[in-house]
Structure formats: structure tokens, C-alpha cells
Specification:
619 residues
């Protein structure tokens, strides 16, 4: 049967060209993901790696971990759906096999054999491309500013051992469900000329779709009780559930949305009317072509909005907590400022490195509670800061949520590589990452540790105006003394720039692959509809009308995917916005919608789909 499958692939290679492309580049994506994650471990093994290098590698590891989740989902999702789509397009051919006596089991084995042949060739090509592109990708990570380190590539065999089996398994799983459905094709299908496809999804698809929808509804119901950190985590992964639900129930939902979008144009353009009718009848083809657009629009849009709202949340928390009207970025002036009669309090932000037994290395702020209460409004939401003396620790709400350490519990740590001490968590403070870190120890515990201040928060003496204080501090510190609101704006601007770099790393590989998948799916769909185009020509349609119909089909399908992805982004944005506004209370917070990347994502998806449709229509 494998020999027959190989000959079948050779004779009908056009049908599998799209599946080959999707799997080859999906394997490349998986291989590059493994290379990037492996490079962190390989680089960390350097003998000369210092604490700063290890801290940077930990940040890269977290970033690459999230990127791998996005990339793997896109690769598995696109490959599985493409193989299933390709098998579904061969209904008449499979009906002919059934007509000449092939049993359902033989049809199923034939299709699985074809999938294995294509998967073997595609994974081999994908692994070879991934090996070539791996070092270039690591160089690109450094060039975009994600790191200043030279990342060492892992052994060549590592990406192969993950990417090749993953590609094969996903291709076979994607084909298995389609092959099972195809084996039930009746022999009469060989004589069927209509392109009407079954709208009702299978039982398994319905169960998966309903389970995903139930999970999304559950999250929406508890949105009012989610803390911001939890809402942001949910915002990163909720789109995956939405995409799964839309894919499982796509034959029901996607054509309906496409029909609604086409309604204003169908009355004015015959090509739009024909495209709308075709999308409504070819339900599986329509949903399969819209799938990659929906996936990248939902994932990219949700990630962009979540990261943008995170900056707004952090800025609002900083503005709420910061009482000092002047910030000095030259810590060497602390002594002179403290003797100035205009200055009330000079609060130095100092940090020391600490290594926790269970939590690893982290930076810890050394705080003078009295000064921090005046300049940074440091307060406890649980516990008591008066107890922050000796071997004690205060932690932010986010850290408590992430670490699962409770108030009153103990953690073992080494400050600046010293001997191990046991610290008791005595207070929980609000988040304000730019004013103080997630962890704080009292000054009397770390007074023997050397640490340079990074920034000074300056408050005025009694009856001294903020303007007079700023003028006095500028005499001492020059341009390093800035108003607090300007300093906060600079911090937010810098964070947004770093977020842009992070988005390039997180979405770059998956975005490129999604673009390839959009073109690939559009070309497969155009090939599937070639018989309909010829029929239109026989009925008297001009070549221009045929091309216009193909462009309308691609445009409406892409628009449907963008609408569904945009709806997902709105849901995630509402979820995060609800949690943030509740957390900051009465303090005003301005949510910045990153329109440029959202519009750019939509424009690129539409341009790729229309370009592919135009190319296919000219054949």
C-alpha cells in the first residue's frame, strides 16, 4: 500500500504541494524554536558567564518560552488543518476509488500512506532549512536589540530530534481524521458535480469546539475577580482557545460571517454576489482558508494589546505611588542633596542580588521604610511594614501570586553570595516595578552589602514648592534632576520600545510562517475552485469577471478571518482593561491602543491573500 501511496502522490502532486509547503515551513519553525531555546542553555554553560549574563539569559529563556508556545501552536494548527483540507478536496477522486471496489479501510490506508510520504519529504527539507537558518536567526535576535549576548547555537542534532518527529506526527494526525472521514465517501461521489459541502461538523469537532467555548465563557464570567497579572496571562493564551473553537466549528460560523460581510457589496457587484454564494456553499474550503488569518490576527492582536495595556497599568501604578516631585538619575549627588535646606528627604533606590533556594537569583531592593513611605508611598496591603526589620522580607502582590508564597511564611536566601539566611515575609505591597522591585529587605539587614543607588527620589522640605525644589536640585545634579511626571513618561516610552523588540521576537517567526500559510491556503483554495471558474467562463463570464470573483473570494475570506481575530482581540482587551481599572481604583488610567501594529497586521494579511488570489486567477 505504501508503494501505491507513493505513486498516487507522484501522479497528484499538485494536490499535496500546499501540504508539503505548510509542513516544510512548519518544521523549519519548530526547528528554529528549539534552536533559540537550546542556545540559551548552551550559552549559559560558558565558564565566563557572570551574574549579569545569567540574568539576561533568564529573560531570554522566558521570552523564547512564550515564543515557542505561539510558534508551536501556529505550526501544529496550520499543518494539521492543511493536511485535512487537502484530503477533503479529493472527494470525487476517492469516490471513484470506492466505485471501482476499494474498501473504506483501503482508502484510509492509502491516504495515510500518502501523508507519510509527503511528511517524510517535507520534514527532511524543513530540517535542512532549519539547520541553515538557525545561526542566522540567533544573529537576528541580537541585531533587533533583544540581547547584547552572542548566543551559541546548540548541537545540530537537537532541532532535528524535535522537529522531525513533531512534523511527522502532526501530519499523520491531521490526515488521520480526514482519512477516516474520507473513507466513508460513497461511490456516488465520483459522479457528483456540485461543490456543495456538508455544513455540519463531526461529533468530535463539536465536542472540542463546545469545550473551548465553555472555557472562554468561564474566563469571561470570572473576569471581574481576576487580578491584573492573571488577566494578562489569560490574555496571552485565551486566543488559542478561541482559535480552536472557531476552527472546530468553522464550517458553521465562518461562511455565515463571510455572507454578512458580502451583503453590502453583493447588491452592487455580480462578482461579489458570485463570491458570496461560493463561500456559503463551500463551507470547509472557506473555513480552511480563513483559519490562518484568524489565528495570526487573534494571537498577534491580543499580544499587542495586552503588552500595550501592561505599560499603561504600570504607568498608572507608578503615578499612584510616586509622591516625590523630583527624580534624580545621578546617584552620586545624594550626599550634597541631603545637606540642601530646600530638600526634605532623599530616598535612594538600592538593590542587592539574592539567590533563593527555590526561586533562583533575583534582585532585592534595600529600603528605608520611613523614607520610602514619604517619597514612594510605600504601604502594605497585607501585613505590616513596621515589622520589616532584621531577617524579614516584603513582596509585591505580583510576586506573591507568581511564587505561591504566603504571608508569614519563610524563604531561604543568600544575599550577595553570603551565608544562607531565613527570611520571613511580613508584608505585601502594591505593584510599582519602576519605583521598587518585587522583593524588599530592610536597610539594617543589607547595610554591610555594597550596592550603588540607581535613582534618587527627592521630596521638598516643609513649605517648599515643587518648582523651587526642582531648581535647587538642578543646581546640584544638572539635567539629571527631572520632574517626576517627565521621568515616568520616559520610563513608559522606554518600556514601549522594549515591547516592540519583544514583539519582533515573539511574533516574528510565527508571523512569517502565518504569512506563508495564508498564501498557501489561498492557492490551495483557488486550485479547489478551478472547476467553478471554468464553469463561470462556460456560462459567459468574461476573464475579468472570473478574476474579480476570485479576488472577492479572497478578500471576503480574509476579512472574515480578520473580523473573528479582531473580535478575539476586543475580548482580550476588555478582559485586561477590566482587571486594570479595578486594580488602580479611582486613579485615572489612559489605555493606549496600539493601532499601528494592529492595522499593519490586518493590511499584510489582506495584501498576501489578494496577491495569491490574483496570481492564481491569472493561471
Amino acid at each position: 500500500m505504501l508503494t501505491l501511496s507513493r505513486k498516487s502522490v507522484r501522479s497528484s502532486w499538485r494536490a499535496y504541494a500546499g501540504a508539503f509547503t505548510a509542513l516544510a515551513f512548519g518544521t523549519v519553525l519548530i526547528g528554529l524554536t528549539v534552536t533559540m531555546i537550546g542556545s540559551v542553555e548552551t550559552t549559559a554553560r560558558r565558564a565566563q558567564a557572570d551574574d549579569a549574563t545569567r540574568a539576561q539569559l533568564e529573560d531570554l529563556s522566558a521570552m523564547f518560552g512564550l515564543m515557542s508556545a505561539i510558534s508551536l501552536f501556529m505550526a501544529l494548527f496550520v499543518v494539521a488543518s492543511t493536511f485535512g483540507f487537502v484530503v477533503a478536496t479529493r472527494q470525487r477522486e476517492l469516490g471513484l476509488l470506492r466505485l471501482v471496489g476499494a474498501t473504506p479501510k483501503q482508502v484510509r490506508r492509502l491516504l495515510l500512506g500518502e501523508a507519510a510520504v509527503v511528511a517524510l519529504a517535507a520534514t527532511l527539507v524543513g530540517c535542512l532549512l532549519g539547520t541553515v537558518l538557525g545561526p542566522l536567526t540567533l544573529t537576528a535576535v541580537r541585531l533587533v536589540g533583544a540581547t547584547s549576548l552572542h548566543l551559541d547555537a546548540p548541537p545540530v542534532w537537537l532541532p532535528w530530534t524535535v522537529a522531525a518527529p513533531a512534523g511527522m506526527v502532526v501530519a499523520l494526525l491531521g490526515s488521520r481524521r480526514a482519512a477516516k472521514r474520507a473513507s466513508k465517501v460513497a461511490p456516488i461521489a465520483a459522479l457528483r458535480e456540485a461543490a456543495i459541502e456538508r455544513r455540519r461538523p463531526g461529533l468530535a469537532a463539536v465536542l472540542v469546539g463546545l469545550a473551548a467555548i465553555a472555557s472562554v465563557v468561564t474566563v469571561v464570567l470570572v473576569a471581574g475577580d481576576l487580578p491584573p497579572v492573571a488577566a494578562m496571562l489569560v490574555g496571552l493564551f485565551l486566543p488559542l482557545l478561541v482559535v480552536v473553537a472557531l476552527t472546530a466549528l468553522g464550517p458553521v460560523a465562518v461562511p455565515q460571517v463571510a455572507t454578512v460581510l458580502a451583503r453590502p457589496f453583493a447588491r452592487r457587484s455580480i462578482a461579489a454576489r458570485l463570491a458570496s454564494d461560493e463561500l456559503r456553499t463551500s463551507v470547509r474550503t472557506t473555513s480552511a482558508i480563513a483559519a490562518p488569518v484568524t489565528a495570526i490576527a487573534a494571537i498577534a492582536g491580543s499580544l499587542v494589546v495586552t503588552m500595550g495595556f501592561t505599560v499603561d497599568w504600570s504607568s498608572a501604578l507608578n503615578a499612584t505611588q510616586l509622591a516625590a516631585p523630583v527624580v534624580v538619575t545621578d546617584p552620586s549627588t545624594a550626599g550634597r542633596l541631603a545637606t540642601d535646606p530646600v530638600v526634605g528627604v532623599v530616598d535612594e533606590r538600592r538593590t542587592v542580588s539574592a539567590t533563593f533556594d527555590e526561586l533562583g537569583p533575583q534582585d532585592v531592593d534595600v529600603v528605608d521604610v520611613g523614607r520610602a513611605e514619604q517619597s514612594r508611598r510605600l504601604r502594605a496591603v497585607r501585613g505590616d511594614l513596621d515589622d520589616l526589620r532584621g531577617r524579614t522580607l516584603a513582596a509585591s502582590e505580583s510576586w506573591m501570586f507568581d511564587s505561591s508564597v504566603g504571608l508569614g511564611e519563610h524563604v531561604d536566601a543568600r544575599l550577595d553570595g553570603g551565608r544562607k539566611i531565613r527570611l520571613k515575609v511580613v508584608a505585601v505591597v502594591p505593584d510599582a516595578a519602576d519605583l521598587y522591585g518585587d522583593l524588599m529587605v530592610p536597610a539594617d539587614l543589607a547595610e554591610s552589602r555594597e550596592s550603588e543607588p540607581s535613582v534618587l527620589f527627592v521630596t521638598p522640605a516643609p513649605e517648599v514648592s515643587d518648582r523651587r525644589l526642582l531648581a535647587a536640585t538642578r543646581v546640584v545634579a544638572g539635567d539629571a534632576a527631572v520632574p517626576a511626571d517627565r521621568w515616568l513618561d520616559d520610563i513608559a516610552s522606554s518600556t514601549r520600545e522594549m515591547n516592540t523588540v519583544a514583539l519582533l521576537v515573539l511574533l516574528g517567526p510565527a508571523g512569517i510562517y502565518a504569512g506563508i500559510a495564508i498564501v498557501n491556503a489561498t492557492l490551495i483554495g483557488a486550485a479547489q475552485r478551478s472547476r467553478q471558474r471554468r464553469l463561470l467562463a462556460l456560462l459567459g463570464a468574461t476573464p475579468r469577471q472570473v478574476r474579480s470573483t476570485a479576488l472577492w473570494q479572497a478578500g471576503l475570506t480574509t476579512a472574515t478571518g480578520l473580523v473573528l481575530g479582531g473580535a478575539t482581540t476586543l475580548l482580550v482587551g476588555w478582559l485586561v482593561w477590566t482587571a486594570i481599572t479595578r486594580d488602580v481604583g479611582d486613579h485615572p488610567v489612559t489605555m493606549t491602543v496600539p493601532w499601528l501594529p494592529l492595522v499593519a497586521t490586518s493590511g499584510i494579511c489582506a495584501a498576501l491573500a489578494l496577491l495569491a488570489a490574483r496570481v492564481s486567477a491569472r493561471r
